[in-house]
UniProtKB/TrEMBL annotation:
Signal peptide: none
Species name: Anaerosacchariphilus polymeriproducens
Swiss-Prot/TrEMBL GO biological process terms: division septum assembly; sporulation resulting in formation of a cellular spore
Membrane-crossing residue ranges in chain numbering: none
Nucleus found in the keyword field: no
Keywords for the protein's UniProt record, in alphabetical order: Cell cycle, Cell division, Septation
Gene3D superfamilies assigned: Stage V sporulation protein G (3.30.1120.40)
Function according to Swiss-Prot or TrEMBL: Could be involved in septation.
Name this protein carries in UniProt: Putative septation protein SpoVG
Length: 90
């Protein structure tokens, strides 16, 4: 599995959510609405989720194992940092 495209959209309002991301896997499958969130220990991703009838959120799509999750998170956060790196002032 290769992540072949990452599209990052910055969230303009103040808060913990910093961006919403879409990834393309193997140029064939897209996952939208992955959130980049600033937590106490730094940035992390939250997979797309939906609120159920019991008012709890459940992931709609998610990696099966922690290695895959870490790989996806690493790529997304790298692209996020590249997209919003501060340009040094002259």
């Amino acid at each position: 599995m290769q992540i072949t495209d990452v599209r990052v959209r910055k969230v303009e309002k103040e808060g913990k959510m910093k961006a919403v991301v879409s990834i393309t896997i193997d140029d064939e499958f897209v996952v939208h609405d992955i959130k980049v969130i600033e937590g106490e220990k730094g940035l992390f991703i939250a997979m797309p989720s939906r609120k159920g009838s019991n008012n709890e959120y459940r992931d709609i799509a998610h990696p099966i194992n922690s290695d895959t999750r870490e790989r996806i998170q690493s790529i997304i956060l790298q692209k996020y940092e590249e997209a919003f790196a501060e340009v040094p002032e002259e």
